[in-house]
Amino acid sequence: MGRIWEDLEQIIQDKYQMKQDEWVQVSVSKRGKIHVTVVSDSNIKRTDIKELMEKWLEKKQDSYQIGFINIYSTEQAEELRIEKLRKRDDYLSWSDALYADGITEERKTQTQVISFYRSIKK
Question: If you average pLDDT over residues 15-38, what whole number do you get?
Fold first, then answer.
């Protein structure tokens, strides 16, 4: 058993028999959101991917949430310049960056506000 994103990518690829120019990318944010991007010319529905993920997540002990599910044809992906990103250990969102330093649970509940001011000369 590999990483969560690797397992989900493999499950989706196996179910839909991806061709050479088709691909799946699963990203798991540090906050537990699972985002899926599928590039395929097959008739894949967002609801089918969601159901597949829900069944798979039921077997897991960890608590994850389904995030964005984006499906594009290979032509759309090319037009929009959507490419499969290489995996790295960077943050996926601002919320990941905010909570990545191992803050204790009690500190997570504190609200912090960052304000920007611009002075206007008269």
Answer: 90
